[in-house]
Design a protein that fits this description.
Blueprint lengths: L2 H14 L4 H18 L5 H27 L7 E3 L3 E3 L15 H15 L4 H30 L1 H9 L19 H7 L1 H23 L8 H22 L10
Antiparallel strand pairs: 1-2
Helix pairs in contact: 1-5, 2-8, 3-4, 3-7, 3-8, 4-5, 8-9
Amino acid sequence: MALQEEFESQGNFLFKYRGYLPILILLPGIYVFMQMEANSDLSHDVKDMYRLICLLVGLFGILIRAYTVGHTPKNTSGRNTSEGQIADELNTTGIYSAVRHPLYVGNFFMWLGITMLTQNLWFCVAFIFMYWVYYERIMFSEEQFLRRKFGEPYLNWAAKTPAFMPSLKSWLSPKYPFSIKKVLRNEKAGILYLFLLFFAFDCLSGYVLHGEWELNQNLWFWMFVGSCVYYIIVKLLAMTTNFFEEEGRV
């Protein structure tokens, strides 16, 4: 198999099993975190401040994803595991005029914030390398699909738009207005998982330091509870009403 076809095949495979990537990050991350936490002499207040910084990095990723999703119509530059890749039109305006894969940029910052919780520089460097290798293949396979489907328009857009490091020199205003409903519906799981993991790491810290599991009703607890409430409300509204239905934006 030629290298081009091999990269595309690997990308399709990695996309299909992308749900396992968090496990590859979390399992060694938990071990590194426990080792760092057991040997840390930082005060509780300093640790909380550092975790807030990590959370801001993760939320920055959420914001990138929210802005991207909010301005995209139905079935553009996306895909699912049962039907393959889907793209009724090529996104080239808004954030897509600054970077070709904004959702993966958002994912990177979300996971970087969680990875930073380990307090280990080398683990963060390892994560960045693994993310690059993993998603490089996925981006390659997606771009092969877009290239075959859209031809010259895709090549012209790709020639002036970086793949992962954003550049604003060719910025174009978004073609579609921002849809807060689409963001609330599509990003509910990502927000829940982000706050869940920060709460879980806080509980793990208590176990490492005190030798028992504790449920402290602190900031991390209430942020997790709030994300659960948000997730349940959006899920129920989507199941029982047409509140989130918008023509061309599902």
